[in-house]
Design a protein that fits this description.
Blueprint (H helix, E strand, L loop, with lengths): L2 E3 L6 H5 L9 E4 L11 E8 L17 E2 L4 E5 L4 E6 L5 E6 L9 E3 L2 E5 L4 E6 L5 E6 L9 E3 L2 E5 L3 E6 L5 E6 L7 E6 L3 E3 L2 E5 L4 E5 L5 E6 L7 E4 L4 E2 L4 E5 L3 E5 L6 E4 L9 E3 L2 E5 L4 E6 L5 E6 L9 E3 L2 E5 L4 E6 L5 E6 L9 E3 L4 E5 L4 E7 L1
Parallel strand pairs: 1-16, 16-21
Antiparallel strand pairs: 2-33, 3-36, 4-5, 5-6, 6-7, 8-9, 9-10, 10-11, 12-13, 13-14, 14-15, 17-18, 18-19, 19-20, 22-23, 23-24, 24-25, 26-27, 27-28, 28-29, 30-31, 31-32, 32-33, 34-35, 35-36
């Protein structure tokens, strides 16, 4: 039977050597080339989101923050539930308790908050008050962030895709895939992707499934190698102008025909994180400790950046900068053009969830592994 593990345990020796440092941070910046500029940040506020007696650092905070149009930040955790904070001052507006915390990431859509709980219940809450709109027991404790499309809500488990009525939570249909057994499957489930009149669903055996809107199979493609040690459903597929991009944990990043799933090109370096498309390039954090930039059409490597510590979060974009966090406790800023480091922010306790950027306000939000929520201003 498969054992569900977090990617952090792949680097168990590395993690066990890290100590939890005091909350705080230092910033640094350096000039590189004429086209690159140094980056620094200013701390605006820090908030503690876990209960004070929380003492289980092995449960990592992999739920990323979500910003809303109501100037709120929604932050769930894998400990005790979900809360809303004001963006301006970080004051808690409401909190909703879930036994065992959340089962995956959060969707905010049309003034509603959707998420699965570790109690096996799918919740819909009012974004302004945290009051329950509806809840449905689905019995699944590992789920993707839901995706809203028209009158439906789509969400994935490691081996199933669910289509629900968005207003009531009632099940419309469920697609189940036959997984190929692997000894280790990395924790995390990718959100479904909707495009080209198809729904793309990545299962935890590193297979990609394309369905129509009635839940009927159009095609299925295996991404993992036969000798893969680990598989994963955690990397979200993404559609570009050229193709459908999807990452296998170990066997590489694929550029696939959007309609048929046929491979156009692939790389040798896989990923546990999400893929970022920007301009003519595709960026991702590889499984062997690099941030890589590729040409979208050819898959040719443009540059690679060696992550100082082995494991990086997914990269996010801010103007001409890429931002990622490390499990060691450093937030790093690198050039989109060259991959050179432009600055860093050290906070000590490490991070698993990618940061979130409000580009118009030059603000950045992230959550550390021990539950400290940060707001930074990019300078």
């Amino acid at each position: 039977m498969s054992i569900i593990v977090h990617l952090i345990f792949i680097m168990l020796c590395f993690v066990s050597c890290q100590s939890l440092k005091s909350v705080g941070g230092k910033t640094s910046g350096m000039n590189n080339t004429k086209t690159d500029h140094s980056v620094s940040v200013k701390k605006i506020w820090i908030r503690e989101t876990f209960m004070k007696d929380f003492s289980r650092p092995s449960i990592l905070q992999s739920i990323k923050p979500v910003l809303t149009s109501d100037e709120l930040l929604i932050q769930g955790n894998k400990v005790d539930g979900i809360s809303a904070y004001t963006l301006n001052q970080g004051k808690k507006k409401w909190s909703f308790s879930v036994k065992g915390g959340l089962a995956g990431n959060v969707l905010v859509s049309n003034n509603l908050v959707f998420f699965g709980g570790s109690d096996g219940i799918l919740y819909s809450l009012n974004v302004r008050t945290g009051a329950i709109v509806w809840k449905r027991h689905i019995g699944i404790t590992s789920l993707s962030a839901p995706v809203a499309y028209k009158n439906y809500l789509y969400l994935a488990s490691p081996d199933k895709l669910y289509c629900l009525n968005i207003k009531t939570g009632d099940n419309v249909w469920t697609y189940s895939t036959q997984l190929k057994s692997k000894e280790f499957t990395v924790e995390g489930v990718a959100s479904p992707l909707i495009g080209n009149s198809l729904i793309y669903f990545k299962a935890s055996d590193d297979s990609l499934v394309a369905l129509n809107f009635k839940g009927r199979l159009k095609w299925k493609k295996s991404l993992a190698r036969s000798d893969s040690r680990f598989t994963s459903a955690s990397s979200n597929p993404v559609i570009g102008k050229v193709c459908l991009y999807v990452a296998s944990l170990e066997s590489g990043l694929y550029c696939l025909n959007k309609k048929t799933g046929k491979t156009i090109w692939k790389t040798a370096l896989g990923s546990h994180g999400n893929i970022l498309l920007s301009g003519s390039l595709v960026f991702y954090s590889s499984h062997n400790g690099k941030v890589v930039a590729l040409d979208q059409k050819s898959g040719k490597e443009i540059w690679s950046h060696k992550v100082p510590e082995p494991i990086a979060t997914s990269v996010v974009s801010y103007k001409d900068i890429l931002i990622y966090g490390e499990y060691s406790g450093v937030l790093r800023f690198i050039s989109k053009d060259t991959g050179k480091e432009l600055g860093s922010f050290s906070f000590g306790s490490g991070m698993s969830a990618p940061p979130v950027v409000s580009e118009g306000k030059s603000e950045l939000y992230f959550i550390s592994n021990i539950g400290w929520l940060y707001k930074l201003r990019l300078i």
